[in-house]
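Appendix B.2, paired examples.
Example (i):
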Amino acid sequence: MRFRNKLLILMVGLALVSNGILVAITTFRSRSLMMEEIRSKVLSIASTGARLVGAQEHESITSERDIDGAAYVKLESLLRTIRDANRRDDVHVKFVYTLRPVAGKTGVYTYVVDAQERGTADKSDIGEEYEPKDPQTPAIPLDRDDLQIAEDDYGTFLSATSPIRGADGTPVALLGVDVDIEEVLASTRRLLYIGLGGMVIAGAAAAGIAVVLSRRVSRSLEDLTGAVEKVAAGDLDAQVPLAGNDEFGKLGVVFNQMVPQLRDGLKLKESLALAMEVQQALLPSRPPTVDGLEIAGHSIYCDETGGDYFDFLELSNIGKDTLAIAVGDVTGHGIAAALLMTTARALLRGHAGQEGTIAQLITHMNRHLAGDCQSGRFMTMYYLVIDAGNRHLRWVSAGHDPAIAYNPATDVFVELAGADIPMGLDGGWVYSEFDRDGWIDGQVLVIGTDGIWESRDPKGRMFGKTGLREVIRANARKPCAEIARAITDALSRYRQGRAQEDDVTLVVMKFIPRKNAVGEDAGTPEELSDGGDPESGEPGTGG
């Protein structure tokens, strides 16, 4: 069913129900008030009339022979005057009569004087017993005014009686006044018909208003629905022709403002997707092949673009089987962080392998980045150069967390730390170089960003470096790619569905046996060189 029809049915239904309730309440309340008013007036008529009837004259009428007597004619005329004077719209008196109690029979009365015209069928005879049709009707009291609804052979009446008292005040008879109850019911029915007529008129008016409103509402909704369908189909130029100061006009303005914003948002999303594709393409697609080394790298961004970075640079111009590994982390994430990371990558790739120490390289990069970095933005970097043939490491840490080295043979962890600030903070900073050699087969080296150990569970607790070491220890004898996957899987389980809040980047490296010219193992050094002890944590010779 269309909304227009639903609104029409609803409004007409509400109008009919509300008016019906109002008519019913009004009718029954009016009937009640009318009955109360009639009761009061009938009692007043009976009480006043009873005072006008002479008890002595009334007592002189004893049989049908007295109907032509002076007393009967006088009282008949009086009662008829009372009857005719009260046949008006508010109270329509039909019968006025007197009753005399039957001696020895409590509550039993006979008619004496009746105001009805002689010869009519409804005129009561003198001595005729008054007998209600319903035996359960209460007896009429002689000593006080009374009012009741009674049914007899002449119909159903609202009857009021009042005592006719003698000279000493003793009640000797009753004056009765009957009002036809049908007249009251007819009056209330007229009121009901008027109310029903008003209800029909109100329903028709509500239907007319509902038609107008429903057309206005349904037309506006149809326009809005059509525009939404166009947007859903890809038409981001759709507009709603709604105007005015009502809710639909305001809705049209908001919708027409929303669609261009949606279009811009989709363009931004497409741009971010392209930026993510470009940034992901800047990361190494596969690790290099270096004799004596196994390497794996992995990066997971929490947004479309991020500020984490890792790279592998083969430095064959410096020496055979020489490799540089860089792991960086720009503050924050998003487009700004991605741009700074891209700048750092270009500087590093443009100057790596040139003459000079790696400390001079990082110092040169810092000088350029300090001029490009916005206030409060910087980049940490761990830059490591590996001479796989001589098992010698050189590194610079620009404010980055230390690399973690683990020897599964002795179950010992050491950290390869630096002592410098992040790049971009101070363009005049001079960076320091550290080195170490004497590495043996099976030792694992992990360089990561703080998104690893600062990952949080639903209660806000951090994963920590202790958790990272446990994963490294449990998987150290596996290939580097499996160690990296074990770390990222452990982080995912630890978060338990909580959203990743920072980029996660790590590089895992392991020393493996080298191959000689004929393909045999070249062997493992049995003694460490003077460059330092990988298990003691001493950094070796500073550059």
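Example (ii):
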Amino acid sequence: MTAQSLLTTLLPLVADLSRELPEGERYRRLLQAMRALLPCDAAALLRLDGEWLVPLAVDGLSPDTLGRRFKVSEHPRFAVLLSSPGPTRFDSDSELPDPYDGLVSGLHGHLEVHDCMGCPLFIDDKTWGLLTLDALDTERFERVELEALQAFASLAAATVTVAERIERLALRAEDEHQRAEIYRQASGQQHKEMIGQSKSHKRLVEEINLVGGSDLTVLITGETGVGKELVAQAIHAASPRADKPLISLNCAALPETLVESELFGHVRGAFTGALNERRGKFELANGGTLFLDEVGELSLTVQAKLLRVLQSGQLQRLGSDKEHQVDVRLIAATNRDLAEAVRNGRYRADFYHRLSVYPLQVPALRERGRDVLLLAGYFLEQNRSRMGLGSLRLTADAQAALLAYNWPGNVRELEHLIGRSALKALGSARERPKILSLSAQDLDLPDVSAPVIEAQAEAALTVTGDLRQATEHYQRQLISACLERHQHNWAGAARELGLDRANLGRMAKRLGLK
């Protein structure tokens, strides 16, 4: 490699330092330049976050890699790279397992990395993360390329510094102190991370950051399994109450006779079995946040008592006349249409309006596009660690199956599917594999295409009349089916159909559906 070729590769990156680019695009260009300078099959930029390495950009690795979170103590090659002051190249016959075995994209089979090198990145003399390069051929890298990688790492550190400086300036404009607190709390809490890159996910994160800084009551809505509790945790972390307790209560998990005691507490002898005085969730959450999940299951009686607490901040323990003053921010969640329940008399209108000061809709997984692969990667890495495997990956047909499936159970269904499929695939293997690949057959997802085609064919056969009538008949069926999937939530149906909610309402009215 000549000095001229090195200069030719690095000059565009130097120019990028003075340009305003999205963080993801800046890192993508960085990896592309590195692969041009040092030909390899895969490259990655990872940030060190406590005891975890978080991929920020990958080139040549499977899409789910971006969703994985690598625990340094479980990946000895990463530990070696982080402990080194400069570039490290591993021997092709090294016995240390490679974290990327089986993850090189566009290739089939149990492919293992045979040549690997990496370099730590230092920002302000502290280890910030890693650059890694991997090749499927032995002896791909040479001694001279370690020197080139060292030079490249210096520019990469400058790129990261610029990106972080730009981000800090943007955060300061919105509330630098608050966001810094969010980042501090997120460190070391990988299981609570919100993963996604889709537009709908980014909009949700923006709304969380917006409402988090306020003290408004938030009503989180969405289908079962979308992660409403995770959203509640993120709102709390984004609030000035982040260093105070977040107390949760699943309103559907308790009989009605115990809900009041759980919420407001009780004194000794308040009811049979009340042997001691006990503080309720409101008092435990004083100064912090109370999260009520499945709030649609509360009885009208409990709704009335909760309304009083929300209005005055005062409560009474069961069996006591003494008032207790509390300062609690309330976040509630439900998968029910509470507005419809109000119209039907099953829910108090005043309580509903108190809850929905700031309504927040969590998108269904099927509305998040390729986020399903990032989330799958996160769960794959969790199960790889739990099962003690060298690598756990998805084949190309498995990725296609995940993208095609409708996910009625959303993220929770995906998490359970990955865990179940990995366990079954390992159990059916004749001997314990180093790399375990999950195929579409292992996932055993229902084939949704055949029923859809059959339904469309049936609809076409039953339609008579001119083109306008046939079109309206199809629109009617499509909207009705979508509303059923969303439990008649018009906002959710509009998002899936790609329509404005008001336009969907007018169309439904014209078609006689409303």
